[in-house]
């Protein structure tokens, strides 16, 4: 990827897309093409066709998707399947038609089987049943990985895909109905602190274990793979370190400075019991994470919530 190559970041206003943009700009890349969903609806094949034929990007980061936590995935099941299939079919197919040099597709660690052996290696994909609450999203993402793989095999494309673990960082979604666990906990503890609430309810038992990666680390890993990796294995991107939701809740409670109690709502689903990625492949490809979880969460909290307070949140 040369500094002047034309780079299309699909989903550049989202958490992942905006991190890729920040990181590419910082590294010296200058030629970007970007459209938000109000300018280009990626589920619409005609619009995507015109866009690719006009802009002819050299490289594509496909970070546009319908994304959410357990509740959103389980409620909007049809939309998660349909919109994700449409977005990725259109962008991947038009990238082939318009001779894109290389495309990187973002899949997700939550599409591995629910009861995978741990840590999860890349070759565990499609070896057992999926987590039912996010099956539609997972089916769409698996189709995206397979589309990249089979366009490589049939047409000689250079399309790669990655499996990021749970992410956090700037431009995350803090809407409690649709967010992932880490931003949801930041929102809940912060709101409880400023409203002087005596308790904070957290979903599930607190026992499941999860791995978290700062999105700036993901952006650097993705750019590294775009520059150095070609192949059909969807590469895990994570820290290789996990913690229980209980440990996470206590860490966030501490960082926020909330003094009340945590109440566990055990009637809510826990989801997959453990989800830790085996990161030996990406380590062997020359990348490791750099942002420690304590520091990462502190940075996110102080930048997002304390600035919100200053703006009269
Ligand atoms: N967040 C995580 O923890 C996580 C973990 C693993 C993998 N990933 C993967 O990383 C990718 C990006 O996730 P994210 O967290 O950055 O999501 P996000 O913050 O919700 O951003 C998604 C982006 O997709 C765009 N988009 C959605 N529907 C669109 C449409 N019909 N047409 C055009 N653009 C559309 C949105 O554009 P507008 O803003 O313009 O609407 C938004 O910029 C996804 O593929 C996700 O599966 C995320």
From TrEMBL:
The record marks 108, 110 as: Important for catalytic activity. One of its GO terms (biological process) is 'de novo' GDP-L-fucose biosynthetic process. Transmembrane segments: none annotated. SUPFAM superfamilies: NAD(P)-binding Rossmann-fold domains. Substrate binds at residues 188, 203, 210, 270. Pathway: Nucleotide-sugar biosynthesis; GDP-L-fucose biosynthesis via de novo pathway; GDP-L-fucose from GDP-alpha-D-mannose: step 2/2. The active site is at residue 137. Its EC number is 1.1.1.271. This is GDP-L-fucose synthase. It comes from Flavivirga rizhaonensis. The gene is fcl.
